[in-house]
Amino acid sequence: MDLKFILKYIFLCLTVFSAYGFYFAYSESNRKTPVCLNKTEHHIIDSSDSSGFSSDGPVIIYEDGKILSYSVLPENGGFKTSVENISQNDILSCYVDETGHQFNFRLKESVNEEDDVYDLPEKMLVISDIEGNFKGFQLILKGAGVINENFEWVFGKGHLVLAGDFFDRGLNVTECLWLIYKLESEAEKSGGKVHFILGNHEMMVLRGDLRYVRAKYIANADSLKIGYDKWFAKNTELGKWLRSKNAIEKIGDYIFVHAGISKDFPLDTFSLTDINVNIRSSIDKTFTDRKTSKDIFIGSGGPLWYRGIIKETETQEEVEKTLSFFNSSKMIAGHTIVDSIKYLYGGRVIAIDLDHKENTDKGIMFALWFENGNFYVIDNNGVKTEF
Questions:
Q1: Is residue 134 part of a domain?
Q2: DSSP code for 90
Q3: What CA–CA distance (Å, rounded) separates 68 from 59?
Q4: Residue 109 included in any domain
Q5: Is 244 exposed, middle or buried (0-12, 13-18, 19+ CB in 10 A)?
Q6: Are 331 and 323 contacting, i.e. CB atoms less than 8 angstroms apart?
Q7: Burial of 272 from C-beta contacts in 10 A (0-12 / 13-18 / 19+)
Q8: At CA 241, angle to CA 238 and CA 242, rounded to 5?
Q9: Assigned domain for 222 exists
Q10: What total of structural domains would you count in the chain?
Q11: What pLDDT was estimated at residue 292?
């Protein structure tokens, strides 16, 4: 072979490889949403997230016999950090920067693990996947007659069922949690009930997986000098409260769960109570990533993550068999977004996860409503429609 031809061939190959390398490097450096990992907090930073230091808290921590309240508060058009020693009986305040509202609450005298089974009330409002969207949450609670303009419980003996994922994505997670915490105490005094059911995002944050946490919380955590993974530890009020919650409950003959119960879940081995005990105990256990994903309670096929029911990948017979284990007529689940609240599997399943952020931006919110044995969709104007 001619030497000249060989040299030309080598030069051509080098040119092609160089061009490809330049293109690859340029493409990678200009991705629209590059991410990097904050190794200290396992937080994926999205460059499209422009949120930052702003109002938050209080974060209530029990430390060395003291109760400390950490907050980020508005001041002179900006924000300041605050740390106070408080007592059990103090009236605490929570400011919501998204809406400019404020509400007060007191710490509970005690926090106890929730029951698994409840009698069916005359009325229920059911919603999931609020994800820190306080504005939308307030809209539907007020419109459905659960709270008044002062954030007070006015739902009497009704039940408010919150089917998981109030963490991540939004900018008012802490505020949503404190409102739920406050309403829970007020509901019980009125003979009503707030059911807070754990979702995958609660479990992720409680276990230190902060991949969907907004930049605001990391900035606030840095300013308060408390890592965000410590805001909900066992020695915090919200952490203690969240560790008392269930992942699945039965109200009347309806099963409420964040994601769904798979046909492959060993219901003949684990009762409803067993599921809740195991999921609560998993919060503070150490697993490898592989073991976590495969775990029957908190893994991808478990009640916090499973999408097969809402995506209708199971058969009618398989769903019926699952419901029969619980002696239940319906399963109500969120986690997987649907275009509207709807019945699946001939009315045996109700899918309730909507794009609440998109709806809130349009000034409308929807949730599942139960009254006198029938289910409806209710909007933030209190209008109920059949579905």
A1: yes
A2: P
A3: 8
A4: no
A5: middle
A6: yes
A7: buried
A8: 85
A9: yes
A10: 1
A11: 83
